[in-house]
Amino acid sequence: MYQNNETYLWNPATKQSKLLPVYTIRQSDDIYSFSFGFGFDPMSNDFKVVKVVAFHRGFIRAEINSTNRNVWRELETNAMKISMYISFDVCLNGYLYCTWSCGLMTRSCGLMTFDLNKEVFDYDIDYPANVQKTTDTEINYFESCITKLKDSIAVITFYSNDAYDTTIHLWSLDDACLPPGIKGSWSLISSFVLYGINTVYGYLNGSDNILVKDYNHNLYLYNLGSKETEKVPIKIHSHEIFEYKESMV
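That's the F-box domain-containing protein sequence above. Prediction below.
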C-alpha cells in the first residue's frame, strides 16, 4: 500500500502492516510516473517489492526492497524499455510480469519480466504481431494488462472507439516462464466486444470469467463460455484489483 510517499506491506490474514524504509530514489518534480511490483521469491524464501520510476527527461530508475534485508537497493535498468507507463500485474514462479507502454494513445507496448531471485530485469516478450500492426484511426483508447490463465501467462488487450464499443482480446503465452532469452508464442483464446467498458482487470481462474468495469464504475463478469455478462452488485473507484493468497508470514 502506498500513501503520502510511504509504502506499507499489509497482510489481510494477520491484519498486520509494516512500514518500509525511505526510498533510495527520492521524490522530485521530474518524476513522471512510478509503479510497484510485489512478489515472493521461492529460492530465498523472501517477499520483495520493486519500484520503477519514469522521469520526464526520458530515463528510468528502479530499486528493490526485500523483507529479509529491509533496505532499498537501486537496480540496473539498462535492459529496460524507455517507457512512460509500467504496470506490474502478475507474479508467477519467481518472476514478476509487467507491461510497458509509451502512452494510452499508442500501441507501442510490450511485456517484460523481473527475476525476483537474481533481482534483474530479464527479457522482453514481444506482443502478438497484429497488436503492434493495428492502424485503425478510429481507435481513441488502447491498453493492455497481464493476467494468469490457469498455470500460464496471458495478456488482455482492449481498445475503444468513439462509439464506446470496447474490443477485447485474450491471448495466452505458450511456454511461459521460459529461461532467459527464449521467446514464447501467442495464441488467441477469445475476442469479443462490450459497450461502455473502460477498464479490464483480468481473468478469474476457476470461473472462466473476465472482470471489467464501465464508465460509471460498475463491475461486470463476462463469461468466456456462455458469452453472457453478469453485473457484480458493488461499485468501486479503485484503479487496480489484486489476487490475494492467504499467508501467515
